Amino acid sequence: xxxxxxxxxxxxxxxxxxxxxxxxxxxxxxxxxxxxxxxxxxxxxxxxxxxxxxxxxxxxxxxxxxxxxxxxxxxxxxxxxxxxxxxxxxxxxxxxxxxxxxxxxxxxxxxxxxxxxxxxxxxxxxxxxxxxxxxxx
Length: 137
Fold this sequence. Notes:
The chain is an alpha+beta fold and 137 residues long. The protein folds into 2 domains: 36 residues; 94 residues, CATH 2.40.50.140. The chain is built from 2 helices and 5 strands, in the order ααβββββ. Strand 2 and strand 3 form a beta hairpin. The longest helix has 33 residues. About 7% of the residues have low confidence.
């Protein structure tokens, strides 16, 4: 191969490498911009009216969390499903006491705010009533 032919080949290889690098950069940039999830509020993720009966208990800690004496009261159903409770009504918190058997009606939302405890969601309480003794869990 002569000098002119090898120079042309080197230029062609260089151009091919630049084009390939540009395509890879563009694809990676698009991949990274598409991989960032759009944050959703709990209302956009899940909002459902529910009525759930269970016992007020300390929610269990996540397995990977250090065990503490901290107690976050929540609702445990007969099927061992746990819900965090959010009560925004003033002066009603006295009805939420440990080991009480209650029926809670409200809006079920994702439980993304608190990763320290095991929950299947947060119920924003609209109504809470004690369960009569013979209907206990």
